[in-house]
Write a structure and sequence with these properties.
With about 220 residues, this protein is mostly helical. The chain has ten helices and no strands. Helix 3 packs antiparallel against helix 8 and helix 7 packs parallel to helix 9. The two termini are about 25 Å apart.
């Protein structure tokens, strides 16, 4: 099988498995909605305060939702032996890993793109910031999956690696959170956001090139 066909086969397989486990697939989305909707209950009916908090609230919730779904990226494959078959495959493991990361984003990150604008309206985010919110989600949610893949690969062989995974990944998520929420906040204030978006784009392109290789190496170490 050519490497391109193997790449698409990995994505198709993971999507099929995700749709068979719809409850698990919906957990990060429900968590995201729940966290965002709890903030108005905590701070009260203060439209100006909610409007100012909206970029940070949405992005912190998206980050935590992405973190919640990370552990399943390679865990089920490790438990059922599929990961060992991937390691024994004649194809480049880094390409197969990239396919799994893309499938993970389609299942967990893409639904956030659809729900986040509705929650932004709920929080009173200005209309002029909606386009920037979409752009930051499109650029940064795949980045969360890519960065998280390295942490998952390092901890996949551990029985209780969830806490260690959070400690590894959360510091790496901080720059994404700063630039993404900062861009939305500046857009809401009518300020230019080209610098923040360009930085996020550069981070995404760099991660697409750099992440698959160390993730593949970490998987080999974890399985062996």
């Amino acid at each position: 099988m050519p490497i391109i066909q193997a790449f698409w086969a990995i994505i198709r397989r993971d999507l099929l498995l995700a749709f068979r486990r719809r409850a698990e697939m919906a957990n990060p989305l429900f968590f995201f909605v729940l966290v965002v909707t709890l903030f108005p209950l905590a701070v009260g009916a203060q439209p100006n305060l909610l409007r100012a908090m909206a970029p940070g609230v949405i992005w912190v919730s998206a980050l935590l939702a992405a973190l919640l779904s990370l552990d399943g990226l390679f865990r089920s494959d490790f438990e059922d032996g599929s990961l060992e078959q991937m390691l024994l495959s004649p194809h480049a493991l880094s390409i197969l890993v990239l396919g799994k990361i893309i499938a993970h984003w389609l299942v967990t990150g893409l639904p956030l793109l659809l729900v986040a604008p509705l929650l932004a309206v709920f929080l009173g985010l200005p209309e002029q910031a909606m386009g920037t919110l979409w752009l930051t989600l499109i650029l940064a949610t795949p980045l969360l999956s890519l960065i998280g893949a390295i942490g998952v690969a390092l901890t996949v062989g551990l029985r209780r690696g969830g806490m260690l995974l959070s400690l590894l990944v959360l510091p790496l998520y901080v720059p994404v959170l700063i630039f993404a929420s900062g861009a939305v906040d500046r857009a809401a204030s009518g300020l230019p956001v080209n610098a923040q978006l360009n930085i996020l784009l550069a981070m995404l392109l760099s991660a697409l090139v750099l992440v698959p290789l160390p993730t593949a190496a970490a998987l080999k170490m974890s399985v062996n």
